[in-house]
Amino acid sequence: MGSDQTAGQESVELAKKVRAPDALTSDGEATGGGHRQGGAGHQTGTVALALGALGVVYGDIGTSPLYSLKETFTEESHVMTIDRINVFGACSLAFWALILIISVKYLMFVMRADNKGEGGILALTALVGRSNSTGKKAGLLVALGVFGTALLYGDGIITPAISVLSAVEGLEEVSTSFTDWVVPIAVIILVGLFIVQRRGTGAVGRVFGPVMMLWFVTLAIVGLSKIIPDPGIVQSINPYHAVKYFTHEPKKAFLSLGSIFLVVTGGEALYADMGHFGRKPIMFGWYGMVMPSLVLTYWGQGAFLLKSPDDIESVFFRMVPESIVLPIVILATMATIIASQALISGVFSLTAQAVQMDYLPRIKVVHTSSKHYGQIYVPLVNWLLMIGCVGLVIGFQTTSNLAAAYGIAVTMTMAITTLVFYRVLTDSWGWSNAKAMVVCLPMLLIETGFLGANMVKIPHGGWFALAVGVVLMVQMQTWRRGRSLVAKRIHRGEVGIRKFLDDVEEMTRVDGTAIFMFKDSDKAPPALVNNLEHNKVLHKTTLIVSVDTADEPRVPAGERALITRIAPGVFQVQLRFGFMDEPNVPATLRQIDHPGLEYNDDQVTYFIGRESIVAGKAPGMNPLAEHLFVLLNRGADSAVRFFNLPTDRVFEVGSRVEI
């Protein structure tokens, strides 16, 4: 992102402004705080928002029945015997996982910990940052939050791949002639999905909710069709069957937890998307449709397996009457595309927020809607995700193989969420350690069990998600550290703007407006210093513009500018954008109306600094990190494009900085 001088945007502490990955609202637009008073959620009502949540929040968890129970019994590391004890035990574990992790952990407790209405692991970390946590403890929590965020990128690659592939595999139930076409069709769908991202998702988004509602109704009906003839499977609600499951085949039962965990993948989305829909609509959707449908379909699969154990390889599609398998495959494919779309959009939003928070270099962000800034497209991330997803499908070939890579990133993120939530309870909510432990320890024990079982997946594909997380975490930390060092180097020898102007001898005033993009409101921009020292001129109107990112999703247009007169014709302009706003500097400056400030958009020249960063012997970073930072800095998008400055009116002042 260049240095603090060129960015015109303050490097903001993670504890002051964070937000979890976004997805889409009911009409396919990403918005911030839709559930608050006056927002979209307040206007459309709980039912409409709950319908929208079906198409966004529950896409991932809603497609888990396509593969989770199958993998519980067939994954290579723990091929389970399909008998009454194991089937009842697996169904019992699936039921209680949904209850304890989704209903209790997230809906009852964690979703009450919101950061100004926003949810997600970074929002949770922000609450700790505002508390009394200091020193190493606070640093560790921030590091955990960043790592959890980085892991979500790995999830954003694996989820579309496994979801689409699991649906397309249903074609094999239509005709065996499709067997050789499963991977090519899945690749074509994924490529098409990523190609259309640049067009935005507004039109598609309007059908997300209804399609997912049809999908959940289908899950419930298919499940009921197998439960009614054999209702005994409902007894698996008794946790005794889960206990018996572990005594029947102990080692295999423990390892199978890694697959059973797949029933709750997507659980983080409930919390992350709280800012879009609000807690109440998400709960309404969960208890009103999603949870009953999931429970019925898992129980139905259990009842079906007891009668047809040989159908485990494609248990969901073989439960469906042969005459309607093809329509169900098409519906399942649509549902997985929707689940994939939500993850992709979430990664786009996560990237934009990481850039705003100075954890990633500036990269090109395209706003695909003239009405909603939040609907964005990030070309670089889009193509990297596409390459990753297609590579996984081609490399792993089947859902069973991909399942070996799936789950560990989500499990780690959930466990990190629990650890951070414990500190929120004790530091922010004032709970005693004992009281907080009563809530968090059972959660952590459950998630630790799931995480332990998932560890065996690391050699078989789980390494991929971890590698993505580690690489991105290193990149984020290196960028942030490098930015801090560059800022220190540049700020040496700076002088106050008022003192500098007082010391400058008589100067010539020229017509027009000069805008100097510079972060520090009380310092003289080097570009201004150079201009005065060499050209001895000052524009009739001179604006020193700094850009700050607020700790809220959006700042109203009328509240974005704070103007201070420094000298005749010289003004300090502090612009504030929400971390989900587009930082369009020219558009915001055109709206300024301040006494004595004459602004003509046709006579504006923008002055920005541009540093050439080189690795040197200065202390602060190890050599490898220095070279990584230099590489990242070279690839960063220009401040001109990031702040929407007109390229034909920008004057860059270069300098060399050694780190």
Strand order of the largest sheet: 5-6-4-3-7-8
Number of domains: 2
Q: At the fourth CATH level, what is the homologous superfamily of the largest domain? A: Amino acid/polyamine transporter I
Radius of gyration: 27 Å
Counting helices, strands and paired strands, the structural category is alpha/beta
Measured between the Cα atoms of the first and last residue, the distance is: 15 Å
Low-pLDDT regions:
1-44
Biggest sheet features: 6 strands, mixed
What is the number of strand segments?
8
CATH class of the largest domain: Mainly Alpha
- Form type: elongated
Kindly estimate the percentage of residues that lie in beta strands according to DSSP: 5-15%
- Provide the residue-averaged pLDDT: 79
Helix content: 55-70%
CATH architecture annotation of the largest domain: Up-down Bundle
CATH topology of the largest domain: Amino acid/polyamine transporter I
Number of helices: 27
Explained architecture:
The chain is an alpha/beta fold. 57% of the residues lie in helices and 9% in strands. It has 27 helices and 8 strands. A 6-stranded mixed sheet has the order 5-6-4-3-7-8. α5 crosses α11, α6 packs antiparallel against α7 and α7 crosses α18. The two termini are 15 Å apart.
Q: How would you concisely characterize the structure shown here?
A:
This protein has helices at residues 4-7, 40-56, 59-62, 68-74, 84-109, 121-129, 135-168, 171-174, 182-195, 202-227, 240-248, 250-260, 267-272, 274-277, 279-307, 315-318, 325-356, 379-396, 399-403, 408-428, 433-455, 462-491, 497-503, 526-535, 585-590, 623-635, 639-642, and strands spanning 366-367, 376-377, 508-517, 537-549, 561-567, 570-577, 604-614, 650-658. With 659 residues, it is α/β, with parallel strands linked by helices. A six-stranded mixed sheet has the order 5-6-4-3-7-8. It has a two-stranded antiparallel sheet with strand order 1-2.
